[in-house]
Amino acid sequence: MFDWAVIVKYFPLLAEAALLTLYISVIALVLGLVFGLAAALARLSKTRY
Predict the structure, then answer these.
(1) Cα radius of gyration rounded to whole Å, the chain
(2) What is the pLDDT of residues 1-48, one digit of tens each?
(3) How far apart are alpha carbons 34 and 28 in whole angstroms?
(4) What's the DSSP call for residue 1?
(5) What CA–CA distance (Å, rounded) separates 37 from 45?
(6) CB 7 within 8 A of CB 14
(7) If you ran DSSP here, which 8-state letter would residue 49 be given?
(8) Distances (CA, A) of 15 to 30, 31, 47
(9) What is the pLDDT of residue 49?
(10) DSSP per-residue string spanning 4-47
(11) Which pTM value belongs to this model?
């Protein structure tokens, strides 16, 4: 049988870990968008270096 007391006991730690995971995911999404957009614009640019 599953012991729900463990979840209740560690809920603050689990919630903090979930928020940290969301924070890291948002940062990765923003960085990927910025670098991907920069790479796409560089490929579309007529200027060649």
Answers:
(1) 21
(2) 889 999 999 999 999 999 999 999 999 999 999 999 999 999 999 887
(3) 10
(4) -
(5) 12
(6) yes
(7) -
(8) 23, 24, 49
(9) 66
(10) HHHHHHHHHHHHHHHHHHHHHHHHHHHHHHHHHHHHHHHHH-S-
(11) 0.73
Q: What angle do CA 6, 14, 24 make, to 5 degrees?
A: 160
Show the tokens assigned to 4. Answer: 């729900």
Place of tokens 């560089």: 42
Q: Residue for token digits 């890291």?
A: 24
- Can you read off the two tokens belonging to residue 6? 């463990």
User: The dihedral of CA 34, 39, 42, 48: what is its sign?
Assistant: positive
